Amino acid sequence: MKYIEKLHYITHDIPHLSHIEQAQLACEAGAKWIQYRCLSKTDEALLADINTIAETCDDWGTTLIVTNHIHLNGKADIQGFHIEDMDADFAAIRNQIGNDITLGGSANAIENLIRLAKQGVDYAGFGPFATTETKPNNLPLLGVEGYYKAVQELKAANIQLPVLAVGGIKIYDAEALMQTGVYGIAVSGAINFADDFIEAYQDFYTSIKESAVN
């Protein structure tokens, strides 16, 4: 199995920090996994961002994952892709990018998680946990109970898939979420909009590390 970090930091289009600045701060905070999520730029602009962020990640030993944009595979130092389309053909995507590239997918129901596991993803982002302004959607909120139930069902089906809680997660939610048995947590807004970015990242990291049950 590939290495999957327990805390995934996700960049976003926000007014006060560029994606490059977000990635730099995350690395300075100790991030070992950055997901570059930008759906608003041309390929040329995306690659300009990714190449700069990749250099930063390389300096800090940080894994760089890109949201969607699998057509950029091989054009920059990208370690993996996270596909948000829950209906995507992940088996076909795996064939396209090869086995060495990390592949993650989004899910909102246990059925999604089982399908992702069968189609060869390396991890799943499962959410939303709560209402989120970062990625607005109308999907059902899972809450703590939703994660506990999903973890138990995966165990019963003997499916080993790293599941990361995502969507509107605050620092005070981290301990309860990790106690459900999820593998980790993905965070964006609670770090990006914190008074102290680096402190917020490190608080999440510490809470996840201390609360993990797997």
Structure, explained:
- The chain has 214 residues and is an alpha/beta fold.
- It has a single domain (7-211), classed as Aldolase class I (TIM Barrel).
- It is built from 8 helices and 8 strands.
- It has helices at residues 19-29, 43-60, 90-97, 110-118, 143-156, 174-179, 189-192, 197-211, and strands at 7-10, 33-36, 63-67, 80-83, 102-107, 123-126, 163-166, 184-187.
- Strand 1 (7-10), helix 1 and strand 2 (33-36) form a beta-alpha-beta unit.
- Helix 1 (19-29) runs parallel beside helix 2 (43-60).
Could you list some keywords that capture this structure?
single chain; 214 residues; alpha/beta; TIM Barrel; 8-stranded parallel beta barrel; 8 helices
Topology overview:
Layout: E1 7-10, H1 19-29, E2 33-36, H2 43-60, E3 63-67, E4 80-83, H3 90-97, E5 102-107, H4 110-118, E6 123-126, H5 143-156, E7 163-166, H6 174-179, E8 184-187, H7 189-192, H8 197-211
Parallel strand pairs: 1-2, 1-8, 2-3, 3-4, 4-5, 5-6, 6-7, 7-8
Helix pairs in contact: 1-2, 1-8
CATH class: Alpha Beta
CATH architecture: Alpha-Beta Barrel
Counting structural domains, the number is 1
Order of helices and strands: EHEHEEHEHEHEHEHH
Q: Gyration radius, to the nearest Å?
A: 16 Å
Helix content: 25-40%
- Residues in β-strands, percent: 15-25%
Any idea what the CATH superfamily is called?
A: Aldolase class I
Q: Helical region count? A: 8
The end-to-end distance, rounded to whole angstroms, is 15 Å
Backbone structural class: alpha/beta
CATH-defined topology: TIM Barrel
Mean pLDDT, nearest integer? 95
Low-confidence sequence ranges = none
Strand element count: 8
Oligomer: single chain
Main sheet characteristics: 8 strands, parallel, barrel
